[in-house]
Amino acid sequence: MATRYAKIILTLVLATFATLVAFNNITDYGSNFAFVKHVLSMDTTFPGNAAMYRAITAPWAWHAAYALIILGELLTALLLARGALSLWRARHASGTDFNHAKTCAIAGLTLGFVVWFFGFMVVGGEWFLMWQSHQWNGQEAAFKFYMAILGVLIFLNQTERD
């Protein structure tokens, strides 16, 4: 039972994290909007880099990208919260039933990995060369987030036995 409770708690903790990240981005929109704006416009990357053709300088696109990030965070939070509830309800069930209850949590963890790894490391870090910016580089923070998510995803996917 301790393993099941650990899986429930870790899923709930990450649901709380994603909820707070989304809440902060909504209630303090301007703070992280500036981050998105600078990363997409590539205005703090190395001078004269050959990839500047990738820069997006249209304000509507900055807002759309930020809205997509927030939506991903919110959906991650909702899927993880629903997943934690499903796991809680199945905590005394058979191993097979508990494994089936993991569906929403797995979906939420996967989406969270997509948001923080694909969104921040692949798109932000490599396509928009965020790694070149000393001021607007969110790769270290994103790494912490997606590694925590990946660790829970691996742990959660361990098969439950009766």
Task: Describe the overall structure.
With 162 residues, the chain is mainly alpha-helical. The chain has one domain. Helices cover 73% and strands 0% of the residues. The protein is built from six helices and no strands. It starts with a helix and ends in a 6-residue tail after the last helix. The model has no long low-confidence stretch (mean pLDDT 96).
Count up the helices: 6
Q: Uncertain regions: pLDDT < 50 for 5+ in a row?
A: none
Q: Which structural class best describes the helix and strand composition? A: mainly alpha
- Largest β sheet strand count, sense and barrel closure: none
Shape: elongated
Question: Keyphrases for this structure?
Answer:
mainly alpha, membrane, 6 helices, DUF2165 domain-containing protein, 162 residues, 73% helix
Brief rundown of the structure:
It contains six helices and no strands.
SSE layout and pairing:
Layout (H helix, E strand, L loop, with lengths): L1 H26 L1 H13 L17 H31 L5 H6 L2 H25 L11 H18 L6
Helix pairs in contact: 1-2, 1-3, 1-5, 1-6, 2-3, 3-5, 5-6
